[in-house]
Amino acid sequence: MPKGDGKLIAQNKKARHDYSVEETFEAGLVLQGTEIKAIRGGRVNLKDSFARIHNGEIFVHNMHISPYEQGNRYNHEPLRTRKLLLHRQQINKLIGESKEAGYSIVPLKLYIKNGVAKLLIGLARGKKKYDKREDLKRKEANRSIQRELAQRQKGM
Questions:
Q1: Model pTM?
Q2: How far apart are CA 109 and CA 97, in angstroms?
Q3: What architecture is the 7-127 domain classified under in CATH?
Q4: pLDDT tens figures, 37-71
Q5: Nearest CA to 53 among 88, 2, 13, 26?
């Protein structure tokens, strides 16, 4: 997490597998009262979420925030589109970069920092199938090296 520490609520692990993230931005979220209560309870899923630019503003789509149990009739729509809060300079940079072919804006992590919900979004380029295979091979090689080193240290 950039800048300071926060309580991690949800993480999009699939994003790092499907995309190579080139740059990250910390964005605030425009939320309703029952949404922040559900987020604090950890009832969020970022799995299929993505961000889009519309009229010079950035919105996150398909971020599932489960309804708050005590919310009754004031509850929110779980999959509603939510506005992201960024500085104009950051939005302009994302607009310029995302227009290039192959770039997407992907939510990576949702966390609470200083009592405020923050979403870490990444400017990412989609990986090809062979890139994913290379990453898996590299991870497996690193694991086997670490295992071998650990066994040698036990033997000494």
A1: 0.76
A2: 21
A3: Beta Barrel (2.40)
A4: 888 888 888 888 889 999 989 999 998 888 887 77
A5: 88
